[in-house]
Every structure is written in structure tokens, then in C-alpha cells.
Amino acid sequence: MTQPNAATIEAAANIAFIKYWGALDLERAVPCNRTLSMTLKRCCSRCSVEFLAGEGKDEIWLIGPDGKWLQPDESFSGRIARHLERLRAWSHRRGRFRVATRNSFPASAGLASSASGFAALTIAATRALGLSPSRSELSMLARLSGSGSAARSVLGGYVEWPAAAPDANAREEEIFAQQVASEDHWDLRDVIAIVESGAKGVSSLEGHRRALTSPFFATRQARLEERFLLVRQAILDRDLATLGPLIEEEAIELHLIAMSSQPPIFYWRAGTLAVLEEVRRMRDEEGARAFATMDAGANVHVICTADDEERIARRLQGLDYVEAVIRDGVGPGPAVLPQGLL
Ligand code: PMV
Predict the structure, then answer these.
(1) Are strands 35-52 and 158-161 parallel, antiparallel or unpaired?
(2) pLDDT (tens digit, 9 = 90+) per residue, 120-140?
(3) Closest ligand 1 atom, CA of 295?
């Protein structure tokens, strides 16, 4: 290849209803349990990749909110560089990548920026290489970034991952995500209350490692498959009254495992509790159909229908601890953007 090839992809974060917390194989991001998520549409990463002929170092740029091109810190660029190396090896191609990436939402705030980022990077890089892998292959490749949730962000709507029971000895191509239902199936909304926008203290990678030290980890695993099946069915039935309590229970359980790990991890902040209490109050006293979930961070995702979105967003915005509210909802999955580099 002598001509550079380029692609720009936008991929959205996802919010897990059944969560990945603890791995059978952490290096390959093989989770202990099946997980299920909703792909969002506004919390996005946009990633441009060029593949250039010739030897040399990959170039990695992070574009800030003001449009400035920044050199990312060592840990961020190291993770991307290792993933590019993997994609180069997988494609048996020689050459170097130039990558520029930007987020539409605060990175490292428990909003799964690694999921959207690595999904966008994987799809853009394979297209820049001139390849068009299947969704299952893209999911498998995105997972190898080390961010398991990236395996789900290559698809839109409601997504389960892995598609089959997790197995540490499974071949790579057997561990991929698949769609449970498309975004048209059910227009769920996600009102995200940002109570902390800075980087979180303990990475999810470290959280997965520590999860297995919790005395409650085995109990959680024993309960999870049943909850997974109920959640999947509630989505298929568009049944928020069943789905809601299950996803709240699941989110609290993830944090129970985190808080009882060795050493313990506390992601919650005072604002987290304030939002959880307000959601409960709106439900019990005002009949709102709203249910909370949190990933590995302090921010709270409030899952509701379109009818309740406006009043929930306004109420949460008025709470002292809430810095900002992002109004998101189920989305269609990654999109190819027409322009070259950002
Ligand atoms: O994708 P990772 O390795 O960053 O882990 C994701 C962890 C959670 O967001 C807490 C749960 C999930 O399944 O998305």
C-alpha cells in the first residue's frame, strides 16, 4: 500500500444493566458472567485513523473540548498504542497509524469513555487498513483492547456480551457481543447526573482484579444468570416495572463488591446518594417511572421513558451536588463519518 487510507468513526458509550465486574481472564477481558447494556447516542467518542506506509512510531492525538490537539498522557497513549499493535498483527500489515480522538463527554468519569473510545478506534483502524470485518469480529477485536465494555459499543440498541456462556478457554472469535433488540424496539432514556466530572480514583481494570477478593463475589455470581435472563426478557417485553428494580439491585451489588474488595474501592460520593434518594422519592411520591444505575464511578444514570425524561432532568439539575445533567437515550450504534481526520 502506498496511499494512506483514512476513516472517521463515531461510537457511543453504553450503560450496563448487567455488569462486567471480575474476569475469568483479565488480559483478554473475558468476564465471569454474561452482561447486557444499552448503547447510548449522545455520549460519543469520535476517532479518526490514517494508516500510512513506512516504518515509524504511531502518532496519537487527543482533541480537547476547545478543539486543541493535545499529546495524551503516557497511560492513555500506551493503551491505544498497544491496541494498534494488536490490530497491526491481526491484519498482518506493515505501516503506522495516525490517530486523533475526541469525546463529547467527560472522560474517566464512570461514563465508559473507554467503551466508546476503543469501539471507535477499532472500527476506524480496520477501515483505514482497508478491511471490513463482521460485527462479531469487531466486537472481539474491541474487547482485546482490555476494555470489555468496548465489545458492546460496536453495536446499537440493547446488547449482550458474551453471546454464549463465558469460558476462559474459548477461542478469541467465540467471545463477542450480539444485539438483543435494536434501538427502535424501545425508546428508553438515560438522564445522567454528573456529580463528579474528574478522573475516578481506581480504574475499572483494577476493580476487576480486586472484585475476586470480595467475600460476596461468589454469591453475586450465583445470582447473576437468573437476573440476566429476567433483564433480557424485560427488555424484550418493554417492561420497565420489571426491568427497573433489577437494574437498581444490580448496580448496588457492583458497588457492594467494590466496597468489600481488598483493598476496598469507594466510587460513591455524597452526590451519588443524593441522586439515588431523589429518584426514589420521585418514584414513591410522584409516580415517576425512573430507576438508577451506576457503573464504576460516582455518576448516576437514571433510566426512564420519554414521558418522564423532562421532569427528571429538571429535578436532578436542581440538586446541589449535581454539576450537570446529560440527557441521553438508546442509540443506533457506530456511524461512519464522511470527513477524514477530525
Ligand atoms: O470495560 P471495562 O473493562 O472498563 O469494565 C466495565 C465495567 C463497568 O462499566 C463497571 C461495567 C460494564 O459492564 O460496563
Answers:
(1) antiparallel
(2) 999 999 999 999 999 999 999
(3) 10
